[in-house]
UniProtKB/TrEMBL annotation:
UniProt GO MF annotations: ATP binding; ATP hydrolysis activity
Source organism superkingdom: Bacteria
Pfam families: ABC_tran
InterPro entries: ABC_transporter-like_ATP-bd, P-loop_NTPase
SUPFAM superfamilies the record matches: P-loop containing nucleoside triphosphate hydrolases
The name this protein goes by in its record: ABC transporter domain-containing protein
Boundaries of every ABC transporter domain copy: 10-60
Amino acid sequence: MDRLTATDHDVVRQALDATGLGAFAERRVAELSGGERQRVLLARALAQQPRMLVLDEPTNHLDIRHQLDILELVRDLGITVVAALHGLDLAARYADTVVVLDAGSVVGHGTPADVLTVDLIRDVFGVAAEIGPAGKGTLRITTGPLLTHAR
């Protein structure tokens, strides 16, 4: 017996379509790639129609196109999202507020423009960085090379 209502099925279908998985609805999760599984996890969360999302590396296992798709989708939900991101360029582009941790301590908190500085990136991550405008009020962050004297 199906415990889901027609509305439930519609919500699930919308979540699958929003994450680009509509065509995969009948496939078993074990048959999906790592990136597709990552999007299934997000679709599952979206189907619950949350007022807030907590995401741990939502772009992990995704190619760049799907990383951008997912982050734009999440941004456009209009809800509070707390996400752990390791891509500084993605955090700078999509986050309203960033928190940078170093060894479990907060070393930066604020807008990406205020927090993601050349000095902070050097001190926390041990890499050189170039930072510039990327349009639409966002930053472009290019990192490298490794700094041998850091850390």
